[in-house]
Amino acid sequence: MLSTLPRRLALLPLLLTLGLASHAQAADDDKPPSYQPREHYTKYEYRIPTRDGKRLFTAVYLPKDQSRRYPFLMVRTPYGCGPYGVDRDGVKQLAPNEEFLKAGYIFVCQDVRGRFQSEGEFIEMTPHRPVKKTPAEVDESSDTHDTVQWLLDHIPGHNGRVGLWGISYPGFYTAASIIDSHPAIKAASPQAPIGDLFMGDDSYHGGAFMLAANFGFYSFFKPQQTPVLPPRQWPEFDYGTKDGYEFFLQFTNLDAMAARLAQDGGANPYFNVQLAHDRYDSFWQSRAILPHLKNIRAAVLTVGGWFDAEDLAGPLGVYRAIGRQSPTTDNRLVMGPWVHGGWIGSPGRSLGRVRFDQPTSEQFQKEVLLPFFEQHLRDVAPKTAIAKATVFETGTNVWRRYDAWPPREAQPRSLYFAAGGRLTFTPPAEAVGAFDSWVSDPAKPVPFIGYTAMGMPQEYMVSDQRFAATRPDVLTYRSEVLEDDLTVAGPIVARLFGSTTGTDADWVVKLIDVYPADVEELPSGPRKRRPRTEDVEAPEAPLGGYQQLVRGDPLRGRFRKSFETPEAMVPGRVEELRVTLQDVNHTFRRGHRIMVQVQSSWFPLIDRNPQTFVPIRSARPEDFQPATLRLYRGAGQASAIELRVLSPR
Predict the structure, then answer these.
(1) Which of 45, 136, 496, 609 is the most buried (most CB within 10 A)?
(2) Which tens digits make up the pLDDT trace of 202-248?
(3) Is 539 helix (H, G, I), strand (E, B) or coil?
(4) How far apart are CA 34 and CA 85, in angstroms?
(5) What is the C-alpha separation between 417 and 596, in angstroms, rounded?
(6) Comparing C-alpha atoms, which of 287, 449, 440, 283 is closest to residue 353?
(7) Cβ atoms 642, 492 nearer than 8 A
């Protein structure tokens, strides 16, 4: 089950293709593969010196045919470049697909410093050093620069060009490696890159800690004494239950959870530091790569998934940061209907019960990814020019090509909350002070899925929200039935006017697509099979009236004014709160409704807010207090969802 696997790794079968997990072995196939990589590539292992004297383990797979010259295609990873030593087909783990192997590249994999066979100290999200005064001052850009120069000097048969790629953490290393990069790096594809762990990526969303995913990841991702080989089998944390809601609710606070992790192999400083830095302080700011994406010489193809539960903010942030800070860079974006890394590890035809009706992953790999690297590393012009923004439009299930993202033609519109649970594009006519209210009890938090699972099922990104719509601690607003298709393309911001009787509160906003009551399919075509193994299986439910989550995110009230300096909320005071939801490219079809739900917990996707202004990691049982929250919707206090809408096509 995906729900039991840690973040940034997703599926082990996926990692076989990504080159991120050294312990994985290719599954045996009853039929011989159509292409035998071992007949065409020879593996070499090196320990490449860097300017500070540390040596980085690097595996190089060189084509046996030396009658022509090849470009390098490199991935840098903290997850291991195994199998180490002699292997048969390890090169398959370094190529995005078989077509890359057939095209012929010099494939390179490097353990980043401090991981597995590489020397040095591993630092999560290595801070970039814009100015390096001594050889001892290193970062990912300098390590990559030194590696590239060594490869050019020592590996035969190359054409002098280097491409970089990687998914998730390796996506971060790809982005970090192209800053002030070696001139031989001509193309880079950061895929699901981590841009800023605190500001919307893996660790925190809206100041709320992403509990289930981080606990799962740090149950196994721990410091290493290098050099070290990977374990034969990765340890599995014993939760003692299959119910994540039940498991996390038993702990008094986050410190108690850290202590539980420590029972299995000792305290994990990586997890503990996440809790220690619970605001956007210098620790997080120094690790954000986005402000440093300048002076980029390589062409860049950033890739992300609309349903990436780990790093949806990262690719959008990288694309925008490069556009602002390196305006002359060939900068392109792809966003498909994928989970984390799904464009490589799965067909991309569906997620849970939502179908996309085409092999979106194969389309991307053949029509965009390979042509991108062929163009910049071999001067092979693509059959169809790669758009500035290639994005999949969910709802209609079509690919769109734009000259920018968000589309320039998308116009801002606001959906207002109205009396009687209505949602309307018409500004409110109600008097000042009109509101809806609910009671939030930290002892009974709203779950983020309507079924029992452990961890963070990726299916939650499209999960049916009917279970939440019936709870008294969730406000639900619906539009009228749409007479025409309505396409939302770009970022979403919820502008709320709210108050609480407590001194802190979480404000969770969810945008939802409500299907007609008589629908028999989601979203098109008859349902002929159960979800594939790469899709998370949610319990069967009637399709009619399905409430598909389109986008959701929280804002922790103490950060309403600043993520650097938290501030208590004043009981009863009405304040404006801006909840930033990530971009979408989704069409609400004719006959559907738009729904918005507002609530104050989303458990255990995010940690519980005591609703009192105390240090949350060490909150005492008595600090967790019920509170009454109000959402205002009258004149002068018109709570609304701000969208970008495209004109009907």
Answers:
(1) 609
(2) 999 999 999 999 999 999 899 999 999 988 887 789 999 999 999 99
(3) coil
(4) 25
(5) 9
(6) 449
(7) yes
